[in-house]
Amino acid sequence: MRPPGEETSGGPEPGARMLDAGPGAQEPGQGDRRGESGGRPHGGGRPAGGGGGGVHIGNMSGGAIATGAYGQATSYSYAAPPPQTDEATLALLDAVRALRADIRVLTATDETAAVDGELGEIEGEITRSGRAEAGRLARLRDRLEAGASAVGLLASATAVVQAAAQVLG
């Protein structure tokens, strides 16, 4: 250990060991040295305190990622429908999920809650059995076609009506 006040070269203390020698690892003391660059490490770079690094995720199944001091991550995970689900029902499932996501931007009302509940039931039926009950689909289609609420004005509602018509035949 060096006596207090002794000049140092900024390098590690004698006998110091690197704990992490992975990519981007620094010798002890290297990360806090600052020069005349306004709080930036010697040689430019990013401001001290972190931030600005990129994140690349090649493939991820489930979960959510957030970076930065104020990062937030929200995960919407969806159950996969059975493999025997036909193309028209898969298109309906995609449309139902899109409309449910769009409904979240509307002011919550009894009508939006009721439509979201119906959509949730249909989504659940499709993911469990690969099919949606025809009566429920017809009621939802009629409700959305009537356009009596803000939900009926969403473009994704039109996609649900069209996909329901394909499934209903």
Would you write up a description of this structure?
It is a single chain. The chain has 169 residues and is mainly α. It has helices spanning 87-103, 110-129, 134-146, 155-168. It is built from four helices and no strands. α1 runs antiparallel to α4 (155-168), α2 runs antiparallel to α3 (134-146) and α3 (134-146) packs antiparallel against α4. The protein is globular and about 50 Å long. The protein starts with 86 loop residues before the first helix and ends with a helix. Residues 40-56 have a biased composition (Gly residues). Residues 30-39 have a biased composition (Basic and acidic residues). Residues 1-15 have a biased composition (Low complexity).
Give a brief rundown of this model.
Residues 40-56 have a biased composition (Gly residues). With 169 residues, the protein is mainly alpha-helical.
The coarse silhouette is globular
Number of strands: 0
Helix/strand-derived class? mainly alpha
What is the CA-CA span between the terminal residues? Answer: 82 Å
Give the SSE order as H and E letters. HHHH
What would you report as the Rg, rounded to the nearest angstrom? Answer: 28 Å
Question: What is the helix fraction of residues, given as a range?
Answer: 25-40%
Quote the average pLDDT.
74
Strand content: under 5%
What are the segments in which pLDDT stays under 50 over at least 5 consecutive residues?
6-41
- Biggest sheet record: none
> Count of helical segments?
4
